[in-house]
Specification:
325 residues, alpha+beta, Uridine Diphospho-n-acetylenolpyruvylglucosamine Reductase, domain 2, Enolase-like, domain 1, five-stranded antiparallel sheet, 21% strand, globular, CO_DH_flav_C_dom_sf
């Protein structure tokens, strides 16, 4: 391990000032510390923000408001989250092992590096790790990689499960930085790789996520998260789908859909949603809508199966959501 400075702060203002001058935030550290051990990332100064008062989970009207430092395990186990936003709880449980959920913060999960195995291989070209060096995955082993939102510079999938649920549910986030506070949809946090894949999010220098707000809706409780992976224990998704439905008088009135494991960021499926509104919640309608999901896909040599697996996963997730009482 290389030398670095670790400072603890209990003031949001002090933390922001330190980060604005080049320090890195660290909370659970479940990704950052791992990458530091391998010397993939080598920050020289870390600001421990665990003492900041940003771990509360509260209900405001129909909204669930989650502090950025709330641990994934605490959010998943929270009775109000389970009651009002079961999709969030399920995606968190599917997203990591119990040990990681106990440590990882909600804000940190959203900001974890978008990475593939080549990112960790210091002897392999990777535009995320070394901009301009090339992308080893495009002509290498790429079964787990993205088919949507890719570029000639990067094909890594976004790893977060709960981010898929948050994007599906139109969640917003509040951040604070040197220029003050602002709020925006969680979906707008994530950049497409383009020709700058090392730039993964839209936060400004020094900005700190303070809370995540998940709006309540009549579709929220009829919701499920389905994750397809290589093994039943902790693993990134090959394909995942978050589905939420409002069914009235035997007809779909509202629907929210997003996919993971297939995009370079959590992938909202608005064309599929529009196709389902006004239809009966039947397999044929689900299949016709899900067939739109791979539009614009750019499969690689080893991940063409995702073009077929994505619609099938969406259909099953919709069926599961429709079965919720």
């Amino acid at each position: 391990m290389f030398p670095f400075v670790l400072e603890k702060t209990r003031s949001i203002e002090d933390a922001i000032a330190a980060a604005a001058s080049g320090a890195r935030y660290i909370a659970g550290g479940t990704t950052l510390v791992d990458l530091m051990r391998e010397e993939v990332e080598m920050p020289d100064r870390l600001i421990d923000i665990n003492g900041l008062p940003l771990d509360a989970i509260r209900i405001e009207g129909d909204d669930v408001v989650i502090g950025a430092l709330a641990r994934m395990a605490d959010v998943a186990a929270n009775p109000d989250v389970q009651r009002l936003q079961p999709l969030i709880a399920e995606s968190l449980i599917e997203g990591a092992s119990p040990q990681l959920r106990n440590m990882a913060s909600m804000g940190g999960n959203l900001l974890q590096r978008v990475r593939c195995p080549y990112f960790r291989m210091l002897d392999a070209p990777c535009n995320k790790r070394s901009p301009g060096s090339g992308c080893s995955a495009i002509d290498g082993l790429n079964a787990a990689h993205a088919i949507l939102g890719t570029s000639d510079h990067c094909v890594a999938t976004h790893p977060s499960d709960v981010a898929v649920a948050l994007v599906a549910l139109d969640a917003t986030m509040r951040v604070r930085g040197p220029e003050g506070e602002r709020s925006f949809p969680v979906e707008e946090l994530f950049r497409l790789p383009g020709d700058t894949p090392h730039l993964e999010h839209t936060l400004l220098p020094g900005e700190l996520i303070t809370e995540i707000r998940v709006p309540g809706g009549p579709y929220s409780r009829r919701a499920r998260y389905l994750k397809v992976r290589d093994r039943a224990s902790y693993e990134f998704a090959l394909v995942s789908a978050a589905a939420a439905l409002l069914i009235e008088d035997g007809v779909i009135r509202e629907v929210r859909l997003a996919a993971g494991g297939v995009g370079t960021r959590p992938w909202r499926l608005r064309d599929c949603e529009a196709q389902l509104v006004g239809k009966r919640p039947e397999r044929q309608a689900f299949a016709e809508a899900a067939a739109l999901a791979p539009q614009g896909a750019r499969p690689l040599h080893h991940n063409r199966f995702k073009v077929v697996l994505l619609p099938r996963t969406i259909v099953r997730a919709l069926e599961m959501a429709g079965e919720v009482a």
